[in-house]
Predict the 3D structure of the following.
Amino acid sequence: MAEKFFITTAIPYTSRKPHIGNTYELIMCDAIARYQRLLGKDVFFLTGTDEHGLKIEEAAKEAGITPQSYVDNITGELKNIWSIMDISYDKFIRTTDDYHVKAVQKIFNKLYEQGDIYKGEYEGWYCTPCESFWTETQALSENGEHICPDCGRPVQKSKEEAYFLKLSKYQERLEKYIDEHPDFIEPEARKKEMVNNFIKPGVQDLCISRSTFTWGVPVEFDPGHVIYVWIDALSNYITALGYAVDEKGELYQKYWPADVQVIGKDILRFHTIYWPVILMALGEPLPKKIFGHPWLLVGDEKISKSRGNAIYADDLASHFGTDAVRYYVLSEMPFLQDGSITYENFIAKFNSDLANTLGNLVNRTVAMINKYFDGVIPKSTVATEFDADLISTVEGGVKAVAEKLDTFHVADACDEIMAVLRRLNKYIDETMPWALSKDEDKRDVLGTVLYNLIEGIRIAATLITPIMPGTAKKIESQINAEGTANIIVTTWQDAEKFGLEYVDGAKVNAAPEGMFARLDEKKKLLEIFGEEAMNAPKTEEKPKKEKKEKKAHKEPEYPAEISIEDFCKVKLICAKVEACESVENSDKLLKLTLNDGSGTPRQVVSGIAKAYTPDALIGKKVIVVANLAPAKLRGVDSNGMILAAGEKQADGTEKITVSFLDDSIKEGTIIR
Ligand code: ME8
């Protein structure tokens, strides 16, 4: 019997349409679920919606509809976005579902009967948007105001009769559990945050009911109270599987405990303290892992409807396509630090990774097989000097991607996939099939090269299945015309072996659809924002005077100190200058073509023409800022920056000296 794998997402509030940050979580879990299915596991992927609470009651009132209609609308909208984003969940739970409401009441009753819940009086500070109570000390800000320590918004003083969960009783057991299960909370840094800031200082009993609003699950034996939204929401993970205290459905028996529960960093406290205590009190096993992901920011701002910067996945998909959105958010979200999205960066990444690296590779290979072999995939009969390295890079790439996905480093998995694709592109440059095609004696070599490319693409298609399932299918249909080849993109095991034998006469698609055509940044931005918005001055645009000062070599304002994490965001690598020429109409700029070890030449424009002639630079090793956002200088694309010293002269100008590296350092070497 296949090994089971149970994965859950947080259940988003239905107080508003989910934005791209909430959607990221679904995409990430979907990628993990699809990967685990490729491994052959029996996967159960649960998601749903959190539909109770004051905030929803208020939003419905404002909209002039019942809370039920309100959440029906939002859940409908959310499900539509999940469907656009190809989220392959196995079950969708709504906290307003009858079976869930009944099970939550049973959970509450059991905990009350066994003395883990007691009635008391609550006096504290309440944050409506976060549905959280805070104590005096927690809510008091430095300037004497009372604010929510999570979101920073004002809180209201509130005093009422309420039920409490005896968290304090479980403090020691919880600490011991976390100690004995080092993988329970991940990433490690977040675990430390939780343990040191919330658990070690002592957990206080938690208020778990409200009597000032009605949109919630009523306490069965005290109907003036509704069950506070977190007990209701957290229970979804087991009620969805048919858990109802005295009944434990088949799904529950099979899938619980969860293998991983994925949530955002802001709700880690609820999942690593309250949730384990509820399960301990119920006598049920704890999930194997709680994984807290960082947040997506828009530029460097928090996504919020009130700031007007909310971006929605359905809008993005209408401009870029589902898979590009999936790829972009997954590849841009680091493991620990927050990720940032902007339209400009999206377009640049679309062009470099999806159009240039992936689309081109598939389009070129299929076109060459059509051109040179009438569409029939050739066999490998000889070997070229480049094969061994290609094959070991592809096979190594499969291992690396698996390792990254096993540990939820999804963005790193995307990088590994791109490295495999870049290696395949480099193989085309190395073997030059167009030149081989001109020599009849080299036909075997040409066939071998194209076979190897198809093999690499087949494997890459499996690797990208979790990230871009639609694209993987498209690739499959390009390289396996109407099922003529036995090329199957279905299991991870198939991807581990380079060198499958295809049936005789297996064909690629004769009229392939191009994949990921390059985007023109200006046109795309115009399509998204419209003419008017494009012409309006951007709020962050600095007045002209400041810009001029910058040109006069105003020193950048460096912070007194930065963290090592901040420094590590800058990717510095060694590159060799392969070609160099001056930029038309500019006496300052040089255009350099660099070999950065990736296999794809990198073009960088640098303001060093006054200090160097092009010839003086060719063959030199330089340091490149490799992950700098692409820019256009005098209309020429620049992907990165070369490091140089700028020594201030008495006349205010700068004397520029490029930082050259020793020739023995290999292209692509990381510099720290
Ligand atoms: O917290 N980037 O719902 P929610 C990435 N109902 N993730 C983000 C994000 C961002 N900018 N903003 C929010 C709730 N999230 C509760 C959950 S679970 C029993 C109850 C994540 O709609 C957030 O961290 O506020 C959470 O994991 C999920 O989106 C839903 O957030």
